[in-house]
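Memo to structure team: turn this sequence into structure tokens by end of day. - J.P.
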Amino acid sequence: MKTIKVYHYDAFSHIPNMGNPAGVVLDGEKLSDDDMQKIAEQVGFNETAFPLKSEKADLKIRFFTPGHEMNLCGHATMATIYALKTKGLLGDQTKLTIETKAGVLSIRLDSQLNKGIYITMQQAPPQFQDFNGSLKDLASAMGIQEEDIETNLPTLYGSTGIWTLLVPINNLSAFRAMKPNNKQFPGVLQDMPKASVHPFCLETYDENAHMHARHFHLPIPARLRIRLLAPLQV
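Reply from structure team:
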């Protein structure tokens, strides 16, 4: 039985528990695939990341949800690179490459005095696939009306490493009405039932932003959720 330490990072926010939570395991070289999956199940975050040695890049990162392995995860990549940098495991490196199941991608780090560490991540080349489901059912699953979906733009699946359904929305008022029923999404997304849903619109609250968006994942079983991470047994 192994004792594993899992670090909890909240990406994209300086406020604890207000960003995208990710688990990071820094001593995963001796873990099996089954071990990693079990750890991700116990942690219960959308993704838990395992940085490993690589023969193709500066390091490899594997990403696990509570249910399966993912090809790539942006916020868990940011969490992993931040963890390695702040713990002194990257030295003075400002450019590096990471091996993922979506390909070998580049990372750039910029440190600014009193402003923290800025991480720029390359994405995998974009891919797109038609959505053949019902816009009415999709709108219902998001808690809005079908007419809230902008039909002058396509609703389609997109991927730069993992698949999500890109849903154009007419205006911000629809976002305020959204009460997604995540359990309905697999039935609506029959072409890709494991895809996430990403509604967006070109109207924004911030004048410096180009678009406003939300992001909906499949539900994580409540019995797997933990908030305080302690050493885990696998």
